[in-house]
Design goal:
The chain folds into 2 domains: 172 residues, 3-Layer(aba) Sandwich (Peroxisomal Thiolase, Chain A, domain 1), CATH 3.40.47.10; 150 residues, Peroxisomal Thiolase, Chain A, domain 1 (3-Layer(aba) Sandwich), CATH 3.40.47.10. Helix content is 33%, strand content 24%. A hairpin with a 3-residue loop joins strand 12 and strand 13. It has 11 helices and 13 strands. It is globular. Bound molecules: acetyl coenzyme *A. Acetyl coenzyme *A (ACO) binds next to helix 2, helix 6, helix 8 and strand 12.
Length: 332
């Protein structure tokens, strides 16, 4: 498929990880688990947890500062800010508004986007389409989550899997043709929201003494079902977007999947017949950082020289909702 829209390129990426490293052994001191169980079932060795006074907006702002520096632009040039998060500082105002103020941006368009672990890809696709529409000139997207704020440290089946962090990217239109973000796709299926959710704290079940006592402000997950769906859906959406742009799996130079679980990632690679060397993973060090995950891995891969000009990079994610998405990039 030839490209008919202006090219959108990622001109800068950045990420932020809290300093506090929490190892599997640290978690084994507070919940009935072990380093061996967590490593073998998830591939995670350690994760970062933010400080008590460090909210999602603070991590998002720190990641954004790095992306803006990498892009080499003046922050005043940014005219659209999208923050993908499922752990906003507060229900309202949006975390995007808080980040807008912390970064000292002008009175630009700023909004939150909620697509759980698919958030970075949803933001990337939305931001690039808004650039292509001509309505905006420079877009800052951020994926940030303080997962430790919604983890139940009495539920060993979930609290060992997640970590905190933020990632960001600056998107701009390029004069070059046939490069940059070739296209993106995203989908959702809300027919079974209880597979992965936070029961209380919204309008369906506002905070109450009962909701706090019954620990309903924390994540609940059907891990086995999520596992199956994640492999199937990420495989399908990857194939779909490659087909759409006349590429085959063998053309992929680098696949960056959502960093949920190493067994999910290995099953995805097997399903796609892609050797593991063609994937970039950092799950072992950061766990599942939800909305930040894909952007964190992208920033790390780029800074480590794993992405070169002309290479085909596929980003793919899956999350609560259920939501999923993929973005195909020919790096400029
Ligand atoms: N430590 C020790 N034992 C544990 C732990 C733990 N942390 N957690 C569960 N167990 C026990 C269970 O209680 C169970 O014990 P039992 O047999 O005595 O009942 C046993 O381990 C096996 O539990 P399973 O649930 O069968 O373990 P499974 O092999 O399915 O692995 C896991 C569980 C890791 C959660 C897996 O299902 C998974 O990875 N699912 C996907 C989760 C995920 O990635 N979610 C997020 C993706 S979407 C998003 O990012 C928003």
């Amino acid at each position: 498929m030839s490209q008919v829209f202006p090219s959108v390129i990622i001109t800068g990426t950045g990420s932020y990880l809290p300093k506090n490293v929490v190892t599997n052994d640290d978690l084994a001191k507070i919940v009935d688990t072990s380093d061996e169980w967590i490593r073998s079932r998830s591939g995670i060795h350690e994760r970062r947890f933010a400080e008590k006074d460090e909210a999602t907006s603070h991590m998002a702002t720190a990641a954004a500062e790095k992306a803006i520096t990498a892009a080499g632009i003046d922050r005043e040039e940014i005219d659209l800010l999208i923050v993908a998060t499922m752990t906003p500082d507060m229900p309202f105002p949006s975390t995007a508004c808080l980040v807008q103020s912390q970064l000292g941006l002008g009175n630009i368009t700023a909004f939150d986007l909620q697509a759980a672990c698919s958030g970075f890809i949803y933001a990337l696709n939305t931001g690039s389409n808004m650039l292509r529409s001509g309505a905006y000139k420079k877009v800052l997207i951020i994926g940030a989550d303080k997962m430790s704020s919604i983890l139940d440290f009495e539920d060993r089946s979930t609290c060992v899997l997640f970590g905190d962090g933020a990632s960001a990217a600056v998107l701009e239109i390029s004069e070059e043709t046939n490069c940059g973000i070739l296209g993106g796709t995203a989908g959702s299926d809300g027919s079974n929201p209880n597979l992965l959710y936070q029961p209380a704290g919204g309008s369906a079940q506002p905070a109450s003494l009962k909701s706090v006592e019954s620990r309903e402000h924390f994540i609940r997950m059907n891990g086995k079902e999520i596992f199956k769906q994640a492999v199937r859906v990420m495989g399908q959406v990857s194939t779909d977007i490659l087909n759409c742009y006349d590429y085959e799996t063998e053309h992929i130079d680098l696949l960056i999947p959502h960093q949920a679980n190493m067994r999910i990632i290995e099953s995805l690679a097997k399903r796609m017949r892609l050797p593991m060397e063609k994937l970039h993973n950092n799950l072992d060090r950061y766990g599942n950082t939800s909305g930040a995950s894909v952007g964190l891995a992208l920033d790390e891969a780029f800074r480590n020289g794993r992405i070169k000009s002309g290479e085909l990079v596929l980003l793919v994610a899956f999350g609560a909702g259920l939501t999923w998405g993929a973005t195909l990039i020919k790096w400029h």
